[in-house]
Each structure stands twice: as C-alpha cells, then as structure tokens.
Amino acid sequence: MPELTCPLCQHSDIQFYHEDKRRQFHQCQRCDLVFADGRFLPSAEREKQEYDLHENNAEDEGYRRFLQRAMEPVTATVIPPAKGLDFGCGPAPVLAGMLSESGYHMSVYDPFYADDSTAVETSGYYDFITCTEAIEHFHMPHREISLLTRLLAVNGVLVIMTKRVESALKFASWHYKNDLTHVSFFSDQTFAFIGKQYGYDVTLYSKDVVLLKKHLQIPGIIR
User: Do the Cβ atoms of 103 and 81 come closer than 8 Å?
Assistant: First the structure.
C-alpha cells in the first residue's frame, strides 16, 4: 500500500480526521489541510456532471451579492485598469464580468469550461487572481497554488473564497463536506502555511475570503 502523503505540502505526517457513510478524511500535521482519502476522489466526468447542475448567471442578484464578497478585496487593493484572472470561473464567469464592468482587464480559466492554455502560460503577468469556490475541488492543491503563484506579478493579490474548516467536531456536522466534489479543506493555519511556503502576506479578510499578497522575494519551495 503506498504511503499516504498530503496533497498540499506532500509530507507524510498524516492522521485520521473523520469518517462518515460516504468518505474518509485525513489531516496533515504539517500544513493542517483536511482532505478526502484518495479512494473517494471523483472522476473528471463525475465532477463535470455536478458542475453542470449549477445555475449561476449574471442576472441573479443574489449570486452577484455572493460574489461581491470576493470582489470587495480586489477593488479595495487593486486600482483599475489592472490585469486579472478568474481561475476556476465555472460555466458562467459572472465575477469576471463584474470586474470588467469596474474597469479591470479580465481573463478566465477553468479546466472544464474555459480550458484556454494561453491564460495560464505567462509568468508574473496578472496583477490579481480570483479563485472563488474552487480551491476545495482541487485534488492536488500544491499544483494549482504553485501555478497561481507563478502567474501572479510581484506584489500581486490572490483572493480565495472557500469556507474554512475549524475543528473535527464541527466538521462532523458541516454541510460543506457533503458535496462529493469538495475534497480539500483549508483552515486559518493552512493559509498561514501557504503564506510562509509560497511567499505571501495573508489576510483573513472575512469568514470565507482570504487575501494573499505576493512578496517581492519568493522563498524556495520546501519538499
């Protein structure tokens, strides 16, 4: 049986965290990430089926208010016109549209709905990147976080929206874990680790929004 390693920091100091009728979860003792056991990772086809059920559109005022929580730290810290990327934009890139309306030059990327490799090729290109309700779907988050860090300009801003895990007790009854496409769960401590590891100043902007500002000097990635 292969050694269990963390999909974020790739270390093997892993402990059991929670198990229910559908899945088992582990927690990394180094970076604090909680993640679903690999046996329960959904296939790309299963993920796509789930995402196709989402009915988000630009005319939905409730959805726009929801996205405003991720847009606010961008408009508070980045002056338009600036270059932005909405990473994991989904079938309807509403946030990118809202930011475009505010004067930002937006690109979008999504492996299922906007798989344009040119959007993720240029290092240090974007002044800011948004990643809303996407990071919890990443099977190997170290890959995406490394990519986002490479794409972001020095002093650029990465805004992540995801609900943060608090404790094993709360996790047991947490609705957020019940979506089978949610496989990676981040805590305050996990984001602090990401900041130290990848070279960001971290601000816990709200209960489900984190702002990361890229340092001038990026430390080497520790394996």
Answer: yes
CATH class of 14-214: alpha beta
DSSP secondary structure letter of residue 113:
T
In this structure, the strands spanning 209-214 and 152-161 are: antiparallel
For residue 37, CA distances in Å to 75, 145, 170, 204, 218 come to 38, 20, 19, 27, 31
Tokens 């590891």 -> residue = 197
Residue 201 has pLDDT above 60, yes or no: yes
Question: Residue 67: its pLDDT value, please?
Answer: 96
Percentage of the chain lying above the pLDDT 70 cut: 96
- Angle (deg, nearest 10), helices 188-198 and 141-151: 50
99-110 burial: b if 16+ Cβ within 10 Å, else e: beeeebebbbbb
pLDDT tens string 68-126: 999 999 999 999 999 999 999 999 899 999 999 999 999 999 999 999 999 999 999 99
Instruction: Specify whether the CB–CB gap between 67 and 90 falls below 8 A.
Output: no
Give residue limits of the domains in the chain: 14-214
d(CA 42, CA 112): 14
Q: How far apart are CA 33 and CA 141, in angstroms?
A: 10
